[in-house]
Design a protein that fits this description.
The longest helix has 17 residues. The protein has 66 residues and is an alpha+beta fold.
Length: 66
Protein backbone atom coordinates (compact mmCIF):
# COMPACT_ATOMS: atom_id res chain seq x y z
CA UNK A 1 0.00 0.00 0.00
CA UNK A 2 1.27 3.45 -0.83
CA UNK A 3 0.60 6.53 1.30
CA UNK A 4 1.48 10.19 0.87
CA UNK A 5 2.67 12.81 3.33
CA UNK A 6 -0.86 14.29 3.41
CA UNK A 7 -2.05 11.01 4.96
CA UNK A 8 -0.01 11.72 8.12
CA UNK A 9 -2.36 13.44 10.54
CA UNK A 10 -0.11 13.75 13.61
CA UNK A 11 3.44 12.96 14.73
CA UNK A 12 4.98 12.56 18.19
CA UNK A 13 8.50 11.19 18.45
CA UNK A 14 8.65 7.86 16.64
CA UNK A 15 4.85 7.49 16.70
CA UNK A 16 2.48 8.91 14.10
CA UNK A 17 -1.15 8.77 12.97
CA UNK A 18 -1.93 7.55 9.47
CA UNK A 19 -5.22 8.10 7.64
CA UNK A 20 -5.58 4.84 5.70
CA UNK A 21 -8.77 5.99 4.02
CA UNK A 22 -10.77 3.45 6.03
CA UNK A 23 -9.46 4.10 9.56
CA UNK A 24 -6.85 6.00 11.56
CA UNK A 25 -3.83 3.90 12.49
CA UNK A 26 -1.25 4.72 15.16
CA UNK A 27 2.06 3.75 13.62
CA UNK A 28 5.46 3.04 15.20
CA UNK A 29 8.57 3.86 13.18
CA UNK A 30 11.04 1.01 12.93
CA UNK A 31 14.46 0.57 11.36
CA UNK A 32 13.17 -0.38 7.90
CA UNK A 33 9.43 0.27 8.09
CA UNK A 34 6.60 1.37 10.36
CA UNK A 35 4.07 -0.97 11.93
CA UNK A 36 0.53 -0.38 13.14
CA UNK A 37 0.13 -0.27 16.92
CA UNK A 38 -3.66 0.30 16.98
CA UNK A 39 -6.50 1.49 14.75
CA UNK A 40 -9.55 3.67 15.26
CA UNK A 41 -12.68 4.35 13.22
CA UNK A 42 -12.45 7.14 10.65
CA UNK A 43 -14.50 9.76 12.51
CA UNK A 44 -13.60 12.94 14.39
CA UNK A 45 -13.70 10.94 17.64
CA UNK A 46 -11.53 8.23 16.10
CA UNK A 47 -8.92 10.79 15.06
CA UNK A 48 -9.00 12.33 18.52
CA UNK A 49 -8.43 8.92 20.12
CA UNK A 50 -5.62 8.09 17.71
CA UNK A 51 -3.85 11.39 18.43
CA UNK A 52 -4.27 10.87 22.19
CA UNK A 53 -2.86 7.31 21.92
CA UNK A 54 0.04 8.57 19.80
CA UNK A 55 0.90 11.26 22.36
CA UNK A 56 0.55 8.78 25.24
CA UNK A 57 2.95 6.31 23.61
CA UNK A 58 5.45 9.09 22.84
CA UNK A 59 5.37 10.24 26.47
CA UNK A 60 5.57 6.66 27.79
CA UNK A 61 8.46 5.70 25.49
CA UNK A 62 10.35 8.95 24.80
CA UNK A 63 13.47 7.22 23.49
CA UNK A 64 14.27 8.13 19.92
CA UNK A 65 16.10 4.90 19.16
CA UNK A 66 14.56 2.83 16.38
Amino acid sequence: MSYREKDIKHEAGRFWVLDTGKAYAVMVAGVTHSTSESTYERTDDGLSLAVARCNYLAAKRPDTRL
